[in-house]
Amino acid sequence: MKEQIINKLATLAESAKYDVSCSSSGARRKSAVGGIGSTSFSGICHTFTDDGRCISLLKIMMTNYCMYDCAYCISRKSNDIKRTAFSVKELVELTLEFYKRNYIEGLFLSSGVVKSPDHTMERMIRVIKELRTVHRYNGYIHMKSIPGASKELVTQAGLYADRLSVNIEIPTEKNLKFLAPEKDHKSVFAPMKYIQNGVLEYKEEKKKYKSIPRFTPAGQSTQMIIGATNETDQDILRVSSLLYMQSSMRRVYYSGFIPVNSYDTRLPVLQQAPLVRENRLYQADWLMRFYQFSAEEIIDEKNPNLDLDVDPKLAWALRHPEMFPIDINNAEYRQILRVPGIGIKSAKLIIASRKFGKLDLYQLKKIGVIIKRAQYFITCRDSSGITINETTPAYLKKILVNKKNTVKNTNQISLFFP
């Protein structure tokens, strides 16, 4: 590989690492005769970066030149950093060569905005179009759609990419204008709407015609930066909840703010990203997507921020002692899902297993229920311990937090590093 390409790769891969809104599954493309690559719903093989992140894609920017001056971005136009750009040919060849060597199984392509959103989108589309049509590459492609791009270009991108993403970055319009004066939410939501309409149109056309070009089969995703501005978790989850009402929105990613431009006085002074808060938001997001919780249940006006000491599901249960304990042998699936220590798989197994008899604690443990947590919120055939009604939520929280901090995993291998 030419030294010039290697230098560009080092610079542009480094710039791309701050975008976490990339996924490596959710679409299926079969290998074709004379073509290369494929992808499946189950995901693709993984690799690791030098900082320990697990990835499976060539995560690259087409260029780190940018016409915008966003306070939180390393590629902002006022930063004195090394700038470079790939040509369409270079990026196509790089993707193919990496794939053939089994370094990657897919491509995540983003870019700084040069000249205009449409100009940048057009160059990115040329890359993925050439991969698909000229080289017959059927591997996974995730492309970052540029805010403000035209409907025609977003629609064209959707014909070649498995997934498109448009990053919101900052949850509220006011704070986005404060940190990125050239941007607004209108330019972000417009491409999102184009993608949503494209997905709906494809589904309707599919009913009429047997074979039509697919449109972003893995849907779309977005990203919000957490901790750069003063939004509460309630503000963030409300936005996420509204986005999930779109038929094509698959994931909302939460990225703890990393102070890459510490000289900008508009940004908070942080030593490290708010990782615990980021984790709690992902847990709350999981509750909305899979556990039938609404954003208003997870957080409310009295509790606008998530409890950093316990996960959102346990925090909700402690705030609603009147909902417990539930009889595990008679409760509905939705009630069982809300018990701390019971996951989706365990809840389904409970429903299936109790047809053959009443369940006890031993059987629940075999099913996969975390008894040390769930026992305070359920009754079953042989339960005799205290429940949340025999104590107080505050005391129970103290017990569970202490247990969490003191339990030692005896299955964990201990390594000594001199």
The stretches of 5 or more residues where confidence is low (pLDDT under 50) are 40-45, 406-418
Helix content percent band: 25-40%
The run of helices and strands is: HEEEHEHEHEHHEHEHHHEHHHHEH
Strand tally is 10
User: Compute the gyration radius: what is it?
Assistant: 24 Å
Mean pLDDT: 87
Structural class: alpha/beta
β-sheet strand percentage = 5-15%
Total helical segments: 15
| Termini Cα gap | 38 Å
- Strand line-up of the largest beta sheet: 3-4-5-6-7-8
Which shape, going by the Cα principal axes? globular
* Major sheet attributes: 6 strands, parallel
Provide structural commentary:
The chain is an alpha/beta fold and 418 residues long. 39% of the residues lie in helices and 10% in strands. The protein has 15 helices and ten strands. The protein has helices spanning 3-16, 88-100, 117-133, 151-158, 173-179, 185-208, 233-244, 275-290, 295-298, 312-319, 333-337, 344-353, 361-367, 371-374, 393-406; strands spanning 47-48, 54-55, 58-61, 106-110, 140-144, 163-165, 220-226, 249-256, 326-327, 378-379. Strands 3-4-5-6-7-8 form a six-stranded parallel β-sheet. A two-stranded antiparallel ribbon has the order 1-2. The two termini are 38 Å apart. The model is unreliable at 40-45 and 406-418 (pLDDT under 50).
